[in-house]
Amino acid sequence: MNALDLSIHRPVVPSAAHGLARRAMDLTIATAAAIVFAPLMLVIALALLLEGGRPIFFAQTRVGAGGRPFRMYKFRKFAVRCDPGGLALTMAGDSRMTTVGRFLALTKFDEFPQLWNVFRGEMAIVGPRPESLVFADCFRGGFEAVLKYKPGLLGPAQVLFRHEAHFYPRSEDPLLFYREVLFPAKARLDLAYYPQRTVTSDIIWMARGFLAVLGLASSPPISPVSPPIGM
Q1: Residue-range definition of the domain harbouring residue 206
Q2: Has residue 190 been placed in a domain?
Q3: 3 in a domain, yes or no?
Q4: What are phi and psi for residue 173, nearest 5 degrees?
């Protein structure tokens, strides 16, 4: 399948399926976070400008709920002159990262601009991590069920795979390793959690996400690839 062809991903849930309570919680938390972290975001923007100039933000099309594509925003971590067609993964010690970019990768502060995606209703605070179009073809064999849920800033996969960039074996193709090992592992975590989530459990994962940024949440061991989840 062509990874850019999302036509096979029919909308599987209506936009209201996220729930009014969660949407209200998303807007409340996003508003509070935008106010509290506004000074920090301004400092990051100025640091990026001084280090390498514009653009400050990195925008990329991601796969959203129901397979609908949307533009996701981050603070730029790579050099301005970096090849936009380069590796679709960020590796440990990635030479494309700037000094400020390495700090953003370590702290996950590059994710702050996604608060805008939350305001727009394209993302939630808690939800599966949205994949880039390069990996759109991974949503098959049962894993397309992940697309029932609005993607988020935080969640089980984001917390437990906090240091994902360090998981790639040097002897293996990183794209193949992601497709065969990391994506299935994260998708199984998502499918084990989201069908039975509660607002309370989402709040707990928010707290765990904060602890992960502080380095207080552990990462799971990588197990051998198991068969995809059946339909």
Answers
A1: 15-213
A2: yes
A3: no
A4: -65, 120
Interval 204-223: pLDDT, tens: 999 888 877 766 655 554 44
Which are the contacts of 100, defined by CB distance < 8 A and separation ≥ 6?
44, 47, 48, 51, 77
pTM: 0.82
Asked whether residue 43 is domain-assigned, the answer is yes
Note the Cα 176 to chain centre separation in Å: 19
Q: Is residue 9 part of a domain?
A: no
Would residue 53 be called left, alpha or beta, if left means φ above 0 and alpha means ψ between -120 and 50 degrees? left
Domains of the chain: total: 1
